[in-house]
Amino acid sequence: MATERELKKRINSIKNISQVTSALAAVSAAKANKAQRQVEATRDYAGKAFEILNNLASQKDIGADAHPLLTARETIKNYALILITADRGLSGAYNSNMVAYAERFITAADKPVQVITVGRKGRDLLIRRGYNVVASFDNIPDAPSILDVTPIAQIVSDDYLNGKVDEVFIGYTDFINLIARKPTIKQLLPLKPLDMGDMAVSEYVDDVDLSGVSDRAYIYEPGPDALLQNIVPRFTDLQVYQSVLESKASEHSARYVAMNNATDNAAELIEILTLERNKARQASITSEILDIVGGAQALSS
Length: 301
What we know:
Layout: H1 4-57, E1 79-84, H2 94-108, E2 113-118, H3 120-128, E3 133-137, H4 146-161, E4 167-175, E5 181-189, H5 224-300
Parallel strand pairs: 1-2, 1-4, 2-3
Antiparallel strand pairs: 4-5
Helix pairs in contact: 1-5, 2-3, 4-5
């Protein structure tokens, strides 16, 4: 059994750690609330932009002049995957869950997959496990702007246009609420969703419901062709931007939950150790009293 002094040191150490985790939980809660507001503010815009884009692409007069980023390849030789994780830990299973989901996607793919990582945690794990990481981005701000993610979208767009990759997917953690989040992989390029049913990776890729999109009436000025040339590259940036926002909100909420749980566990452990310390103190006092009584009896005899 540990001595009273050892237990006291452990209790003080745990109290110091709990102060740190409590502060991190408070900071993460504030960041998560801010990130949640940012995500919710952009979701409707991103969804409506996707709807209009697919309506544009389905116009009868587009034909063979569709933007190259909308054109699917007849033969798929390789894939690219943008994987979004955090730059640091202390967020529970947030990073490991996303990396594990991406690993299952890569394993299920029937073609080579090159990975572009966003965040140091995903990059370090994939490189350590021998995956083909061709580019890495880190230090993305907690409140990113569209300019922060444009280079990410640019590199995959260039690779797609140059024929280096035939399909591009993006993996991120979809923010549901402060407690729940879900690893997700969606198709990014070509922007017009394909039929994923026959693909080996279909179970890891979220489908997009486009029922009735082409039937909605829109009036375009100056015309679908001219609009597509300007909208498609910007929409690629928008999709990456929305995915980063979802991941940031998920990261901060996961860190808040992890640090809050750590603080609660520290409080429980302090109670247990305090009880053990009191028992050790009581045993020490009892032992001293017995020594005194024994000494007194020895003197009297």
